[in-house]
Amino acid sequence: AITALTSAIKLARAGLREPEKPIGSYLFSGPTGVGKTEVAKQLAASLGVELIRFDMSEYMERHTVSRLIGAPPGYVGFDQGGLLTDGVDQHPHCVLLLDEVEKAHPDLFNILLQVMDHGKLTDHNGKQIDFRNVILI
Questions:
Q1: Is the distance from CB of 35 to CB of 46 less than 8 angstroms?
Q2: What's the pLDDT tens digit per position in 74-120?
Q3: Is 49 helix (H, G, I), strand (E, B) or coil?
Q4: Of 7, 9, 31, 110, which residue is the least packed, with the fewest Cβ within 10 Å?
Q5: Using alpha carbons only, what angle is made at residue 110 by residues 27 and 117, rounded to the nearest 5 degrees?
């Protein structure tokens, strides 16, 4: 996993990566306590960028997915931004850690596919958030 991370970072810094996609999208798997979260923390520290961490066990229900990108117009909390979109908007160069993603609602994976394919996500206000400089774990 660490070899794949370092090669993706080297390619991105050399300008040899897909320009419209995130720097890298990785799914770490393994039993509890092997250091998946620690690898993400050390990666962010060594790159000198922000680590944005979400515990995805809090997003097990369908309505909680809107907390990440913001509520649609007319719903309670529309004026508040989404946690994911606001976090990446404030820190465009970051390591985004979605911890325990297997526990999240399946609708979340549709959002993640859009981020991995297009490198952009539209928030509740219609603003496009750029994920091109994000390492998604």
A1: no
A2: 777 676 778 999 999 999 999 999 999 999 999 899 999 999 999 99
A3: coil
A4: 31
A5: 70
- CATH superfamily for domain 2-136: P-loop containing nucleotide triphosphate hydrolases (3.40.50.300)
Query: Which pair of tokens denotes residue 86?
Result: 């606001």
Check if the beta carbon of residue 131 is closer than 8 Å to that of residue 115: yes
Torsion of Cα atoms, 34 then 35 then 36 then 41, to 10°: 180
| Gap between the Cα atoms of 96 and 6, Å rounded | 16
Q: Which residues sit opposite 77 in a β-bridge?
A: none
For residues 135 and 28, the answer to whether their CB atoms sit within 8 Å is no
Contact 34, 88 (CB under 8 A): no
